Amino acid sequence: MPEDQKAHRSRQRPVSCRFCRSRKLRCSREAPCSNCVSRGVRCELQTPIRSSSKSRGASEPELLERIRKLEDVVKSQEARRNASIERQSDNSDIHLQQEHPSNSSPLIEHLDDDVAWLRSICNVQDFSDKTPSNKIVFRVCPIQQIIQGQQSYINQDPFPSSTRVEPLRCVWLPQYAEAKILLEKYLEDPDHVHHIAHSPSLPAVLDNIYECLS
């Protein structure tokens, strides 16, 4: 047999298995080899790697074609996603435009009332009849009603001589018996956030306040 054919055939034979190479044993180069069979281990043969410039050259165009196809798929998916986002944005804008008149109409009416009120102030000579009052009144009610929430303004003018009715800021105080209980609690259980106060004179101050209210 010519030497070149022998060399070609020898290059085609499989190399030793992984186990024989690691133990430096003579491998029969079969699947499985005799050494792996006798020791009961898994035989892993490794075929020789052929380095052919022709095969690499033939696979490069195929790889480039696959990459180009993948890029086309990614671009088409991005285009569809952008189109879907634009449609959703357009639909949301149309929905907001349809809802805006109904939702904003109470606000527009309120603004119209404010504009009319300001215009009436500018058209009259006596500004005192239109400006809000800075008067404060004090009212007494059970503390439970204060907790539940009382109105901060009342539409009552305590001055009979006045010719106009205006909302007055109202400060609600608990009843006298409840106020005394709160004061006793305040004096008996002080803490670090309490203001400095003269304890002996506080009951007299409380009595004077409620006498003035009565």
TrEMBL record:
<dbReference type="GO" id="GO:0008270">
    <property type="term" value="F:zinc ion binding"/>
</dbReference>
<dbReference type="InterPro" id="IPR050613">
    <property type="entry name" value="Sec_Metabolite_Reg"/>
</dbReference>
<feature type="region of interest" description="Disordered">
    <location>
        <begin position="78"/>
        <end position="105"/>
    </location>
</feature>
<dbReference type="GO" id="GO:0005634">
    <property type="term" value="C:nucleus"/>
</dbReference>
<dbReference type="InterPro" id="IPR036864">
    <property type="entry name" value="Zn2-C6_fun-type_DNA-bd_sf"/>
</dbReference>
<protein>
    <submittedName>
        <fullName>Putative transcription factor lepB</fullName>
    </submittedName>
</protein>
<feature type="compositionally biased region" description="Basic and acidic residues">
    <location>
        <begin position="78"/>
        <end position="98"/>
    </location>
</feature>
<keyword id="KW-0539">Nucleus</keyword>
<dbReference type="InterPro" id="IPR001138">
    <property type="entry name" value="Zn2Cys6_DnaBD"/>
</dbReference>
<dbReference type="GO" id="GO:0000981">
    <property type="term" value="F:DNA-binding transcription factor activity, RNA polymerase II-specific"/>
</dbReference>
<feature type="domain" description="Zn(2)-C6 fungal-type">
    <location>
        <begin position="16"/>
        <end position="45"/>
    </location>
</feature>
<dbReference type="Pfam" id="PF00172">
    <property type="entry name" value="Zn_clus"/>
</dbReference>
